[in-house]
Amino acid sequence: MRRCGWKRGAPALAAALLSLRASPATCQAPPRNADPQLALFGGFGYSVRVTAGRTEEQFGVLQPQAAFRLGQRFQYVVEAHYARDFRPDGFVAGLVPAGARYLLGSGRAAPYLQLGAGFCWTDLKIEEISRRFNFILQGGVGLLGDRGGAGTWMIDARWLHYSNAGTVLPNLGFNAIVLLGGWRFR
Question: What is the pTM of this model?
């Protein structure tokens, strides 16, 4: 039995690779607007008791956002997160780099679903949060409204969760409902 060397198999391999190449007619074009869509959200949140925690918290939220189109209905979303707590006094500042938005419809007012995960730093001293460094999980529904060339308005209702993911006990986690309004600039 004689072995075939790489020199004998190379032309066959090259022919196979050339036959598999995609023609330009079958490639899908990228979305027309690959630039990020920049938006600024602001709103109000109120804590919800899900665990054994007893904290009643109210806070204002500011969330700048960049969204990148991945297709007709999907967007990759990155958000900065800043919450200023009123009672007790404190702040939460973080980044939500893993986010997605799914547009459920189209037209002048389109509903959407959104999810996000990230991390934050806080100086809050409440029983639901056991350390300064925490993680953020959020999910919600919203409505995106088009005003033609004047920009796009957005309203959003979210479930927000801060937790240290069990790195320090007790890990009750802080939960809130947040109502946001925003304006997308491009």
Answer: 0.75
